[in-house]
Amino acid sequence: xxxDLFSDLEKRGLIHQQTDEDLFTxxxxxxxxxxxxxxxxxxxxxxxxxxxxxTLRRFQLAGHRPIAVAGGATGMIGDPGGRxxxxxxxxxxxLAENLAGISVQLGKFLDFTEGAGPxxxxxxxxxxxxxxxxxxEFLRDVGKHFTVNEMxxxxxxxxxxxxxxxxxxxxxxxxxxxxxADFLHLFQTYDCTVQIGGSDQWGNLTAGTSLIRRVTGxxxxxxxxxxxxxxxxxxxxxxVGGAVWLDRNLTSPYQMYQFFMQAEDAKVVDYxxxxxxxxxxxxxxxxxxxxxxxxxxxxxxxxxxxxxxxxHSRGDADAAAAASAALFSGTVASLDAVTLATVASxxxxxxxxxxxxxxxxxxxxxxxxxxxxxSKGEARRSIEQGGISVNDLKVEGIEATVxxxxxxxxxxxxxxxxxxxxxxxxVA
Length: 428
Prior knowledge:
alpha/beta, 5-stranded mixed sheet, 45% helix
């Protein structure tokens, strides 16, 4: 547990804006409840949510109670912050399914058990208190405390005004009032005095602190973290195939491992500070190795290992590392059955019957089936040029076949074209 929460957050570059300069002095004096919202716009959270998840965990480790608000109500509206166009509206059934998936993932980061004592995490759904409120009640109790002038001045709204081709609907325009109402409810019900969010949430967060002050005459605070970007300033959290999800059925542990292994040298140290709980001294040492010997990718390896272990498991991280190392070094055939199965799930391939393998299959035909070659002519040329390996052994001769004698762990045959292009044959 950090002796000084503010110092730890500041050194990690996690404080972007805060409403009170003396906030962390107060937090050191007495524990409080800190909340962050997660709208269930998808069946899983993604790596773009990692910053808030890890930051909530840091507050909990420092003795504060984290409250994760699953936005069953606000998820039906959509936050305009950071977007140039309207979100698609979700059905009640889809929201419920999404909430169920997110709840499991929150448990990977926050301690919801009695063992956490007063810092025991809490998950709530804002549909429970916003759902029963009528429109007239909401306008009377919340809307009257805000002027349209101050709402349109918020960056999240102003940026949409500057895009007349898209604009902003009244639905999304009202989002900040709903989020402000969340903060007021949590303040009154759970004595929650701090809300955290991304820097694009600043307008929504300060709307909440204003509402609390106007309704109760009391004080609450807000802190934002920086937006996480790539070295070119573009949004972090996307791979070639789209978002990198925390659900293993949407993004496998191996794919997540590879995503972080590909982190740019210019950003990997920031990511280590944001997404891991490694000591800052250890991160400094990894930064030096990156400067001196970037080809080792030690920082990327530490980042990938830490995140996959946290999101999935230690075993998943180890298997992903072994598969990654084998693919990189060209020694896939030496992997154990479990790790080889991980590789098999990540590369193209084809399924064959045991009977067909007993009879032997033409390697040329198999190369086409696994899409390592587009035609028989291309397959022949690749073999003749020495570019094809079976179980890490280079093939010589276009008459080559594969059979049950080539099976690894009685299940797999590993094909490689060139240095990095793999495919797998497995028995049905």
